[in-house]
Amino acid sequence: MTPKRKQRLVIVLAILVGVSVAVGLALFALSQNINLFYSPTQIAQGEAPRDTRIRAGGMVVEGSVLRASDSLQVRFELTDYAETVPVEFTGILPDLFREGQGIVAQGSLDNQGVFQAVEVLAKHDENYMPPEVAEALQASGKMPQPEAEVFNK
Amino acid sequence: MPRWFYQLASPRWCYGITGKLLPVFAVLAAVLLLGGTVWALLFAPADYQQGNSFRIIYIHVPSAILAQSCYMLMAIAGAIGLIWKMKVADMVAKSCAPIGASMALLALATGAIWGKPTWGSWWVWDARLTSMLILLFLYFGIMALHAAIEDATTAAQSTAVLALVGLVNIPIIKYSVEWWNTLHQPATFKLTERPAMPAEMWLPLLVMVLGFYCFFAVSLMLRLRHEILARERRAGWVRELVECR
């Protein structure tokens, strides 16, 4: 390599390193703001602000979904297997909503610590399988369970 | 440096070798994409939760992978052009941008179409979706910068620097689902673990990914050959080529 080329190589590497460090520091400083949602643990520990619009993400606790008989109101609990947060929502839930499913709800915390959701999105996990396989796994109790860390980073 | 590296620097040699490789990759792309599509849509099993709507991954995943691979190739070619002043590398970098942009657009569009029934929303500002949108804007910026600068050498240098700066976005896209809470699911395929998907589902996906790569090679070579002829139009060998026709 000629000295001229070596010099240009150093400049290119310097650009790469410099930009990576700058962006790395910026992302580190913003790390809380980049999270799409708060986990139930963060909400229980008071990290999530009250009286402002936030998102909460977690698994719908099995057997916790209560539907009102005369309206679209639904109440359920959200967990990351460490803490749980009660959620209330009035409206149409996405097709994938079910007990044991990961969801992300947008809304705010009221004074009783209940999350009043205005929008519920289903969070799909990375597991795909044919229905027959899912049935077989369900029957033998070997269905892959999402890990807590999916909702708590 | 091996001999082929120096040969790559010759536009004439590149024009010749791409002319020979083009039909091979075109046939491969056609066979893989056609076979992969039929396999994916007709024979792969439906998902237990999403039903048939999951089949969009057979377009979504390959286009997203390719959008990122194409960006890396563009940045590496740009760096080679900057350091060794290699004209062919500049031309490769320039040819990459529109292909990568269309792949990024395809990934975003298919993702939105899948997101509506699955998540309940067309678009969410989570880290994965946003960083992918930034990738699309980087491609647009690079194409605009190329169009704005008349002198080919200056244009190549400026876009190469922009491409290198934007390269930092690639690991952010990859690891966004691991570093932050996102709505987008984490990777199904990891190097160290078994895929979270049975073989009858991921085999057609693999075929589609390979097919997309072959298609990318074909469109890149077509653009590159066009670029070589346009840039070398005053060279003796191009004139001979035109006169022979």
Description:
- The complex is a heterodimer of chains A (153) and B (245).
- Chain A is α+β, with helices and mostly antiparallel strands and 153 residues long.
- In chain A, 31% of the residues lie in helices and 26% in strands.
- Chain A has a 5-stranded mixed β-barrel.
- The radius of gyration of chain A is 22 Å and the shape is extended.
- Chain A starts with a helix and ends in a 13-residue tail after the last helix.
- The mean pLDDT of chain A is 84.
- By secondary structure, chain B is an all-alpha fold.
- Chain B has helices spanning 3-8, 11-43, 57-84, 87-118, 127-148, 152-166, 169-179, 199-231, 236-244.
- The two termini of chain B are 36 Å apart.
- The model of chain B has no long low-confidence stretch (mean pLDDT 92).
- The A-B interface holds A 5, 8-9, 11-12, 15-16, 19-20, 23, 27, 31, 34-39, 57, 93-96, 104, 119-135, 144, 150-151, 153 and B 45-50, 54, 79, 82-84, 117-121, 124-127, 161, 164-165, 167-168, 172, 178-183, 185-188, 196-198, 200-201.
- Chain A: It is found in: Cell inner membrane; Cell membrane.
- Chain A: Heme chaperone required for the biogenesis of c-type cytochromes. Transiently binds heme delivered by CcmC and transfers the heme to apo-cytochromes in a process facilitated by CcmF and CcmH.
- Chain A: GO terms for molecular function: heme binding; metal ion binding.
Shape of chain A: extended
Strand order of the largest sheet of chain A: 1-3-4-6-5
Give the helix tally of chain B: 9
What count of helical segments of chain A does DSSP give? 3
Structural class of chain A: alpha+beta
User: Portion of residues in helices of chain B?
Assistant: over 70%
Low confidence ranges of chain B: none
Q: Distance between the terminal alpha carbons of chain B, to the nearest Å?
A: 36 Å
Cytoplasmic side (chain A): 1-8
Organism (chain A): Marinobacterium nitratireducens
Binding site for heme (chain A): 124, 128
Extracellular side (chain A): 30-153
